[in-house]
């Protein structure tokens, strides 16, 4: 990318005012990782697998095909922003309790869509609602059943919270 | 390369005109970012529509629904009003990609991308959708079936912009269905999709049958002679078998990773029959993944 294309974009990342730099069409994932947010991971680079999922104004999006300019003035959340005061969020803790991962490469992405699903609903969720909320996330280790269980347990307990929830 | 972000349609048109051939429009960017990352297109300049709040509007009128070009697929799918007025479109949009893509993808980008492996254009075709194309000092309404001309090609001229699509309200007695057949992963683009529209008169005879096939040809595929021949017929297996046979015989599908041409030809007949059957006997309008 040509140096002269570099620009600054202000946004709120995980509750903190942040300036990200890059070209307008630099994929957001590149700028977020350059900012030290390594939970945002690239696998497919084409919007299919979900490992790069972040919440943009509370909604899950694929950071691999999200142009950097689209973050300007917006609120972004990554898995780093899920914990509160050094404590893992309820969903994160439930992922551990349910053993919802093996290699964990897919985990941050699942956590972001799982959290958005919990934030947008009330009460216990059934399998259909959970599968719908986690659509477009691939786990090569095949932990789907445990991941669903984690979200289901968390929805049943409904005390899930995270730092700076929603926008 | 830079992205310009005008705030009005007028400014957008001016920037497009000033920019010339190497300037492209970007809306949600789900198709364009992917193509740019893979080096398939390298525009010198992009004009983003993301600040054109005037194009991010849904208007439900007595006889039609107008969707601004910037309305996201996610908001179409989530709108309770659209689920009532255009249930099959709303459900078919909900079968596109995954929720992260639908959050960013816009209806204007969906029709302008003109990707053959798309779902909404076939449904929009059976609903009689028209596209509003605007340039400096020009504006025209074009039926979607004429707007889409070939693989990834539309009638859009350089400097022109899609500002909205207009979908007539279906007749209150019309039944509509979309069947999306996928041959690979659950969130794949369609191998073949079939949109059907069946309207009957008070005696239960067909008055208006429409069928469009998605994913198999350059643009949504129709055999108008076959569906018009149903006028006055009973909406039964005999009628639907004939339409299915006509579609299967007439279509010359593409062969790609989602299915060979011969396979798609066969699937088209089967799906046309099922879609018409679902539309004429089912209890709900909607879209279904097979
Ligand atoms: C992983 C993935 C899976 C997908 N699966 C499906 C699927 O199952 N079914 C399906 O139907 N589709 C699918 N799609 C396609 C998706 O629906 C389109 O990418 C999307 O609708 C394009 O909209 P956009 O706003 O992101 O367009 P952009 O990427 O911004 O633009 C696309 C094209 O349209 C032009 N354009 C955009 N808006 C306008 C306008 N208002 N006027 C004139 N030109 C314009 C741009 O210049 C560009 O050429 C998938 C896409 C991805 C990335
Ligand atoms: S890396 Fe973005 S969706 Fe796969
Ligand atoms: S835990 Fe390994 S990919 Fe999901």
UniProtKB/TrEMBL annotation, chain A:
Residues 7-82 form the 2Fe-2S ferredoxin-type domain. Keywords: 2Fe-2S, Iron, Iron-sulfur, Metal-binding, Oxidoreductase. It comes from the Bacteria. SUPFAM superfamilies: 2Fe-2S ferredoxin-like, CO dehydrogenase ISP C-domain like. GO terms for molecular function: 2 iron, 2 sulfur cluster binding; metal ion binding; oxidoreductase activity. InterPro entries: 2Fe-2S-bd, 2Fe-2S-bd_dom_sf, 2Fe-2S_ferredoxin-like_sf, 2Fe-2S_ferredoxin-type, 2Fe2S_fd_BS, Beta-grasp_dom_sf, Diverse_Oxidoreductases. It holds the Pfam family Fer2_2. This is 2Fe-2S ferredoxin-type domain-containing protein.
Automatic annotation (TrEMBL), chain B:
InterPro entries: CO_DH_flav_C, CO_DH_flav_C_dom_sf, Diverse_Substr_Oxidored, FAD-bd_PCMH, FAD-bd_PCMH-like_sf, FAD-bd_PCMH_sub1, FAD-bd_PCMH_sub2, Mopterin_DH_FAD-bd. GO terms for molecular function: FAD binding; oxidoreductase activity. The keyword Oxidoreductase applies. Residues 1-172 form the FAD-binding PCMH-type domain. Pfam families: CO_deh_flav_C, FAD_binding_5. The keyword Oxidoreductase applies. It comes from Pseudonocardia bannensis. This is Xanthine dehydrogenase family protein subunit M.
């Amino acid at each position: 990318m040509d140096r002269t294309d570099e620009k600054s974009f202000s946004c709120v990342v995980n509750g903190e005012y942040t300036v990200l730099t890059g070209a307008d069409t630099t994929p957001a994932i590149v700028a977020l990782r350059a900012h030290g947010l390594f939970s945002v991971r690239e696998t497919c680079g084409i919007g299919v697998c979900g490992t790069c999922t972040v919440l943009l104004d509370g909604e899950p999006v694929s950071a691999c095909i999200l142009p950097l300019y689209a973050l300007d003035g917006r609120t972004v959340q990554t898995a780093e922003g899920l914990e509160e005061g050094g404590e893992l969020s309820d969903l994160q803790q439930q992922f551990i309790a349910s053993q919802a991962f093996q290699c964990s490469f897919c985990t941050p992405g699942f956590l972001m869509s799982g959290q958005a699903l919990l934030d947008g609903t009330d009460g216990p969720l059934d399998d259909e609602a959970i599968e719908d909320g986690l659509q477009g996330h691939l786990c090569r280790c095949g932990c789907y059943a445990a991941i669903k269980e984690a979200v289901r347990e968390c929805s049943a307990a409904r005390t899930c919270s995270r730092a700076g929830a929603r926008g | 390369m830079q992205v310009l972000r005008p705030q009005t349609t007028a400014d957008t048109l001016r920037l497009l005109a000033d920019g010339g051939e190497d300037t492209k429009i970007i809306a949600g960017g789900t198709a364009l970012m992917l193509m740019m990352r893979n080096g398939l297109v390298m525009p010198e300049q992009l004009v983003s529509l993301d600040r054109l709040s005037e194009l991010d509007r849904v208007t439900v009128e007595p006889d039609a629904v107008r969707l601004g070009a910037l309305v996201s697929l996610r908001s179409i799918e989530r709108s309770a009003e659209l689920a009532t007025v255009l249930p099959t479109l709303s459900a078919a949009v909900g079968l596109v990609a995954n929720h992260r893509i639908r959050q960013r993808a816009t209806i204007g980008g969906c029709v302008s991308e003109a990707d053959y492996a798309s779902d909404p254009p076939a449904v929009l075709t059976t609903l009689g959708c028209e596209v509003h194309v605007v340039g400096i000092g020009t504006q025209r309404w074009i039926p979607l079936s004429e707007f889409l001309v070939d693989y990834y090609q539309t009638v859009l001229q350089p400097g022109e912009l899609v500002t909205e699509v207009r979908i007539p309200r279906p007749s209150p007695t019309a039944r509509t269905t979309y069947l999306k057949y996928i041959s690979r992963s659950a969130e794949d683009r369609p191998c073949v999709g079939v949109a059907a529209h069946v309207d009957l008169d008070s005696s239960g005879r067909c008055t208006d049958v429409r069928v469009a096939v998605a994913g198999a040809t350059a643009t949504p595929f129709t055999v108008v002679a076959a569906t018009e021949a149903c006028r006055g017929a009973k909406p039964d297996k005999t009628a639907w078998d004939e339409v299915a046979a006509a579609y299967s015989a007439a279509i010359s599908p593409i062969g790609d990773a989602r299915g060979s041409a011969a396979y798609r030809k066969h699937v088209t007949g089967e799906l046309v029959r099922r879609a018409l059957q679902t539309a004429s006997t089912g209890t709900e309008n909607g879209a279904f993944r097979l």
